[in-house]
Amino acid sequence: MKAAIGTAATAAAIPVVSTTAAAHFPEELAIDIAPEREGNRVEPDENGRVSVAVRYTEFTGENGETVVFDPTDRAVRYRFGTHEILGNGGGVRPVGDGNLRDVDGDGNDDLVLQFPLDGAGFTGEESTGTLFWEQDDSGEHGYAGTDDIALPDDMAISDIDVLNYALTLEHLEHAFYREGLASSGGTFSEHDVERSAIARYFDRPTLRFSTYQQLEDIRDHEKAHVEKLTQTITDLGGNPVEEADYEFDYDTFEEFVAVAARLEDVGVSAYAGAAPLLSDPDLVPPALSIHSVEARHASYLDTLNRRRAAPDAFDSARSMEQVLPIAKEFVASE
């Protein structure tokens, strides 16, 4: 293998809420998932890995020039997973530098890499897999390639992906409160909050004049959740999802509190739906401890919105498929 190929990065887990990264990775590369198997059938080896061949490719660049992508001459800066998840800035990294062989018989060496499936975001329902090559260490530009994939029938989401899903929501919540409260550089001051119709709903001064501090506590809780989940994912060998760019639609403090209540309600139901997906029993207690705190947040926000805090004896859980479209409403568009 040529000297240009350096040490590959360690395996990384994946975020789940899209940013603008995908726009910088035009589909130009030719890849072959599971090249040794008919129909791109993925049957992970004993280490839970799948092979992906990066083929020697020629294409026309943005300025009309001919671009030759020789994987033996390019640094090993690849990420693999679903196209949507890679567009979020995540993906699993290859294990090692790979090996060279002519996969497609065109006389040029191709690079065959091994990627862990754990943390790649596949659930078993996907029909394609995508590879990103990063042009530099920023990870914001490069090329992409997509190929068909046939996943195992018993494919299950990994613990890293479940935790990154939770971390994505915690990033969203923390950013919301951070941007809303003046003590962290946000919009509303303590004066604004204490004199709002929402705070004046409380007759007791100790309740009215502690509203701002209660919201600061919630903000700080969300930050602590971000830090705990980030550390846990790192300890598991994954790559924690980073915070996205958000747009929150509120002008008044009353509107801010209404959005907060919605975020907390979604967060509570998301944890209820995600916790049973964890396969490691040691991860369940900390996940449930976050879930109960999120429920306390939701109850307080319901009170501020003059809604019954617990109208039902049982709450419904939300699946990832139900939660992600809601979370994406707050992600800034390109």
Describe it.
- The protein has helices spanning 83-87, 159-180, 190-194, 205-208, 211-235, 253-274, 284-304, 320-328, and strands at 31-33, 49-54, 57-60, 66-69, 78-81, 99-101, 110-116, 128-134, 142-148.
- It is of the alpha+beta class and 334 residues long.
- A hairpin with a 7-residue loop joins strand 8 and strand 9.
- Helix 2 runs antiparallel to helix 5 (211-235).
Secondary structure layout:
Blueprint: E1 31-33, E2 49-54, E3 57-60, E4 66-69, E5 78-81, H1 83-87, E6 99-101, E7 110-116, E8 128-134, E9 142-148, H2 159-180, H3 190-194, H4 205-208, H5 211-235, H6 253-274, H7 284-304, H8 320-328
Antiparallel strand pairs: 1-2, 2-7, 3-4, 5-8, 6-7, 8-9
Helix pairs in contact: 2-5, 2-6, 6-7, 6-8
Pfam families: Ferritin_2
InterPro entries: Ferritin-like (IPR012347), Ferritin-like_SF (IPR009078)
